[in-house]
TrEMBL record:
Every EAL domain range: 23-277
Cleavable signal peptide: none
Name the record gives this protein: EAL domain-containing protein
């Protein structure tokens, strides 16, 4: 299995996936995991590309399985989405993120926003707006401390429905981020019409930066168009000093990736909240 570089966390080995082979069994396991509170959040810093200041952290779900160890979302989120279980799992994510912010506040650390990933199924009849406002008041967390990431492809459905849902989220006071930008077919003007605040450019484009001139040109075009439309740009999946240097040259606003920091449990994140990141 993989580890986080420190050997503390054991990740799910795909070779074990036959233990979760059938969809029905995996779904049953997920229901049990909900009952037994086996889902938890890791947090990954997102920092200013120039100053290294911590701006936000992304909440990334992990399934702490009693036999398999930490299971990555790639192993269960797709099935959670297709079975509708993502609505219940998503509510747990919202609750845990808000509870964590309240706990950090109680511990006296300077807070930065947490961004949570929201699947399309959680919109419309999923009640994500209601869940979020309930959690915010339950933990007395201001909406300005929550950001919502929605993938570009999720925004390609019925524009009227999506517009209404996004408007309700914005009315709560949360910032909206376009996740995995560049992998779908939306135009930047469409995203501006949806009043998205931040563009997170997919890791695939960060990987191309050092490889080809075209990679750089493409990224540069995204940054200038996003800026012209009043959106901020985040590069995800920054793994090398070279990529970071190129991104700084391209005027990319924020960076996230293993080169800066890996996703870590809340306890470790708290230590990182007290410092600036060295870029
Ligand atoms: P994402 O939202 O695009 O999240 C970024 C993924 O890239 C995370 O994987 C993160 O750990 C990983 N990553 C961060 N920096 C680097 C890097 O420098 N290099 C590489 N190779 N990877 C990096 P993770 O945590 O396994 O999550 C995978 C996906 O699962 C997420 O992609 C997101 O789509 C989904 N996901 C995670 N948490 C949740 C959640 O709470 N709800 C929903 N609906 N989906 C979630
Ligand atoms: Ca994300
Ligand atoms: Ca992403
Ligand atoms: Ca992704």
């Amino acid at each position: 299995g993989k580890n986080d570089g420190k050997g503390q966390y054991r990740f799910f080995d795909p070779a074990l996936s036959n233990t979760l082979s059938s969809r029905a069994r995996l779904k049953q396991h997920m229901l049990e995991a909900l009952e037994r509170d086996q889902f938890m959040l890791f947090y990954q810093p997102r920092v200013d590309a120039r100053s290294g200041e911590l701006l936000s952290m992304e909440a990334l779900i992990r399934w702490r399985h009693p036999e398999l160890g930490l299971v990555s979302p790639g192993e269960f989120i797709p099935l959670a989405e297709s079975t509708g279980l993502i609505v219940r799992i998503g509510e747990v994510v919202i609750d845990k993120a808000c509870a964590q912010l309240a706990a950090w506040r109680a511990a006296g650390v300077a807070l930065v926003p947490v961004s949570i990933n929201v699947s399309p199924k959680q919109f419309l009849h999923g009640g994500v707006v209601r869940q979020l406002s309930a959690a915010l008041s339950k933990y007395r967390v201001p909406a300005s401390l929550i950001e919502v990431e929605i993938t570009e492809s999720a925004m390609m459905g019925d524009q009227d429905d999506i517009l209404a849902e996004l408007a309700s989220l914005r009315a709560l006071g949360v910032k909206l981020h376009v996740d995995d930008f560049g992998t779908g077919y939306s135009s930047l003007s469409q995203l501006q019409r949806l009043k998205m605040d931040v563009l997170k450019v997919d890791r695939a484009f960060t990987m191309e930066l050092g490889n080809s001139k075209e990679g750089k040109v493409f990224f540069q075009a995204i940054v200038s168009m996003a800026h012209a439309l009043g959106m901020s740009v985040v590069a995800e999946g920054v793994e090398t000093a070279e990529q970071l240097a190129i991104l700084q040259g391209l005027d990319c606003n924020e960076v996230q990736g293993y080169y800066i920091a890996r996703p870590v449990p809340a306890g470790e994140m708290m230590g990182m909240m007290r410092r600036r990141f060295l870029l």
